[in-house]
Amino acid sequence: MAGKSLFDKVWDRHVVRDEPGEPTLLYIDLHLVHEVTSPQAFDGLRLAGRGVRRPELTVATMDHNVPTLPGPITDPLAKAQLDALRANCAEFGIELHGTGSGTEGIVHVIGPELGLTQPGKTIVCGDSHTSTHGAFGALAFGIGTSEVEHVLATQTLNQQQPKTMLLEFVGTLPPGLTAKDMILGAIGQVGVDGGVGYVVEYAGEAVCALSMEQRMTICNMTIEWGARAGMVAPDDTTFAYLEGRAHAPQDEAWERAVADWRSLSSDPTAVYDTHVVVDVADLVPQVTWGTNPGMVVPVTGNVPDPATFTDPDDRSAGVRALEYMGLRAGQAIVDLRIDRVFIGSCTNSRIEDLRAAAAIVAGRSVDPAVTALVVPGSAQVRLQAEAEGLDRIFLDAGFEWRLAGCSMCLGMNPDVLAPGERCASTSNRNFEGRQGRGGRTHLASPEMAAAAALHGHFVDVRTIAAEPVQA
Amino acid sequence: MKAISKVEGRVAVLDRPDVDTDQIIPKQFLKRIERTGYGEYAFFDWRYDENGAERSGFELNQPQFEGARILLAGRNFGCGSSREHAAWALQDYGFDVVIASSFGDIFRTNAGKIGMVIVQLPDEQVKALMESVDLDLGSDLTVDLQARTVTSHDGKAFPFTFDESTRYRLLNGLDDIGITLKHEDLITAYEATSAESL
Fold first, then answer.
1. Residues 94 to 153 of B: which have CB under 8 A from any A CB?
2. Residue A436 distance to chain B (closest CA, Å)
């Protein structure tokens, strides 16, 4: 008989109702809320005269449209949205990590940081990058506002059981390569729609060797190839990260929890609908050239010629992407001049990301033609970085050092690209206009983005000596 | 939610793969706290240039697609961000149906929750439907959720499969939360059991 996968085990634990021909009613352990996708859900509750079933399982923060420069918020629409969240949390008794609380930050950074994110939990949020939390062996996925309202009212969701995929990263990751390169390389291999309909378990020696923050980077970008959730089996790395965090179990409860979490790993005989292998042994730092994350090449490569693509849809999309990005087929990636650099986002704004970028930047200067921004993922990350002196390294090199938030990943706050500006970004989406109308985004690792800031164009970060900073 | 069963009307063709929800509703319109009124912002950066003038080259600005209720789109439509504003914008713009060979999972769910019909057909059938559309005068299509068929203006019928529970909700205009709350006793029982096991 086939064993159970990590996904099967977490799913099975949360089944409230399962009738043939109907979606499964799944219990939700943690509901994360932010200002952009929640106001209409709270309005819906009020209209229907409903309450929040389990306010203590709901946690809110402000991240998407908060300014990253100090001072009062000036955008009246953004302010109204933040005010609405504050009022809704007060009315329904929901814990809010608001701006200035000291625990605010990007929702997918603070969940793990506070120890709210734990193995075996079901976690949802009105945000597609909720997949991030799967790094802990949670089943975590993004939902829309109607489902946000559904979870608020019932603490459950109706879900069709997804197909499962095992994505195995084999080989040893070479020096200078990162989790960002692993996931960008994987998306390049499987395509932006390769994961539609699946929950993915990331496994293999290269994943086991990663820190929690690196695993989060990989799970974060699961949605970028269409899969709604990505998961990594919890192990000692996971437990070491969680132990002692504010919402993690303490003392005896901790021991019991760890014993339980160890049982979540996939059985050796577990069966998956699909199995994909990605070899990282010869991986080269990745940079996107186009307008979706699957349009990616090694930094040593060139902008591809869409005429060589076999699929006619890929060809036409490639031609449109080159036009939007202001590129010509055959241009070397290292020849691309950069106007802006953004180090931040729920993909790459944690302390290890900032340390890695600082190690490249230390003692060097940002190219005079480049404006470069570091936006820590949370107030706590910012404090930690400042305690380690990373802010000084960035500031001395000519970077701006900002307050926590989503910032230029999606440009809902004032941090946006001007039309035509080319940006090396550690974020997750290079869609048209994502970072500002007409802006041109190239996704890369924090190290690669830092190196591009120093040189004014992309460089292969493996050729730059990193200065070790405090770890 | 309004019940929906049969949609007969003008079809618009957007033959581009991987149309993400950032394109369907750009971020500058996500700061609104209302649920309605997003139609005028649908595909905003594709519909209008920097000066606010209509871009004549964009598919939905072409006269033969005016008033369309059905959108024929490329594969992986609605990928990316979970913003339900994308579904709100399409519906408010006038679309009741989107037909494509695949969809972003979250978009598909969101659209189903608000009463839109998301029809998945094999790639070659979507292409055939696209080719059947008169690009000068425009064409009509019929999408019948009761019969689960798409019928082109020349009478060719394409059957499709559709999730039964979503279909039932759409045909009857039912509120998802109301249905779930009928099982509130099961939710309470689950909570009691899981509290014991801690």
1. 102-107, 109-110, 113-114
2. 9
